[in-house]
UniProtKB/TrEMBL annotation:
InterPro entries given in the database record: FAD/NAD-bd_sf, HpyO/CreE_NAD-binding, L-asp_N-monooxygenase_NS-form
Stated name of the protein: FAD/NAD(P) binding domain-containing protein
Cross-referenced Gene3D superfamilies: FAD/NAD(P)-binding domain (3.50.50.60)
Residue ranges of domain FAD-dependent urate hydroxylase HpyO/Asp monooxygenase CreE-like FAD/NAD(P)-binding in the record: 6-168
Source organism (scientific name): Pseudorhizobium halotolerans
PANTHER family from the UniProt entry: BLR0577 PROTEIN (PTHR40254:SF1)
SUPFAM superfamilies, alphabetized: FAD/NAD(P)-binding domain
Amino acid sequence: MAPRIAVIGCGPTGLYTLKNLVSSATPLAITVYEAEAEPGKGTPYHPDINDPAMLSNIPSIEFPALIETLVQWLERQSDEDLARYSIPREAIDEREFYPRVVLGEYMRSQFLRIVAAGKENGHQIEVLERHRVIDIALQPQDIRLTVQRGDGAKFDAVFDHVVMATGHNWPERTEIRPGYFVSPWPATALAGIGNGPVGILGTSLSAIDALMTVATARGAFCFDAAGELQYQPAAGTEDFHVTMMSRKGLLPEADFYCPLPYLKPQACTEQAIDALIATGRHDLLDDVFELFRAEIVAADPDYAARIGLSQLELETFAPAYYAERTESDPFVWAARNLAETEYNREQRHTVPWRYAILITHEIIARVVPHLDERNLRRFHRHFKSIFVDDYATVPLMSIRRLLALRRAGKLDILKLGKDYEIVEREHGAAVIVGGKAIDFDAFIDATGQETLSATDLPFPTLVAQGGVRKSTTPKAQALVMGNEPADVVRTGGLDVDEYYRPNLAEPLSNRLYCAAIAFLLHKQPFVQGITSACEIGETVASAILADVEQGERPALLQLPA
């Protein structure tokens, strides 16, 4: 009998896992369970979830190819289809950002081709849409799933390997009370918002998504005679106004030009980080910061001098990094940053210090699983945000739209600081800052996906049987002489090995692969987006195929630096 493999969820991670599985020369019996009606699109890119105005956060050049690249797929679309996507043929470019729903269409088409190719290669592939896995039970030799069909009927199925690629964790209800939304998705949930004041908690791309949904329902973006983007409010929307807010009150910066794939760092290299890890110490964070400091100095000594890098420590680097933006009006900064970014793209110029931070973030992430409790807390509190800010830049069009809304008098940015309060109202909410209450008819929490832990999994048997546990980290200063094992504490996320399998204490099957990104962020803080989905899918598939084809411990794929 062919090895039985289940893939739960067919968003990006499930898609890349499937792509690599069907390359096997050994016939496999693969079942794909997808809760939605169209497997392959993925919730973050599905038309039922996203507004057409929502842009993806990845340019085509960074989107790992499936059967074909995103640009190749776009180039073979008809003029009618491109017009439906609002993409001029001459605008197709590998560094361009496209609407989320376009990426969904691309992935759906690739999914169908992957399934067809897999069947041609001799695999049995069953795709069950509108089927939700509601429980997982590890057994000594296999894994039992409980599945609920779209009509409510339930059944059990048993597999040798199970890939849990469940993706984002969405709330059951978006509008939890009148006018208060705990997520910008699904975008259709925001349709009932009126034409009064709207508050959006967050200023990242998720918050911009929410803003675009409500703004395009009340007006339109268009280019004026000078070629500048403007926002034209619809009649009757005079009272419509949005306030975006965050602790720092900063807008994200525009996606900057840089060489891809990444060049090698000069000082903060994989070899240097791995040498620190090899010491067996867990108080490594200050040593890592020294390597990071050396990288910035080597790449951009003028920037290092400007922010006084030689006098900075790990706890003081972030304030210096944000200082110029914090002291500027966020819209003035956005306009200046946009102009700089457009010029640099034309000149194919890379800002050295920005690129140094970008190319070191994944390398520095290698040390995070080895940090003790104290240093892990320091990393998350003081260091992580600057990497996220640097790589989570947004499409240039997003910045242009923000500036257009500002010129139209429809957008403000509010700096909350640390001391603020969100108060429920009969409809919407009020935000109290500095003793002043600001009322909003509608309030949207757009702060993004939270890090989840073992007990958050929607599979009661798996949790109850101890099939998954929170991840661990060494206690600070607990390592004793003689290389004795350190005491550990459970800190959050999922406790998995390098192949994303739960570290089990019981004699149960270890062929469950926890590839849901929201449960990995605690120890892998930069595991987000399409590229991470591709890397996880490759790793999981290689582990499964090694087990199927050789019966040996799989060799971990070499991931890009």
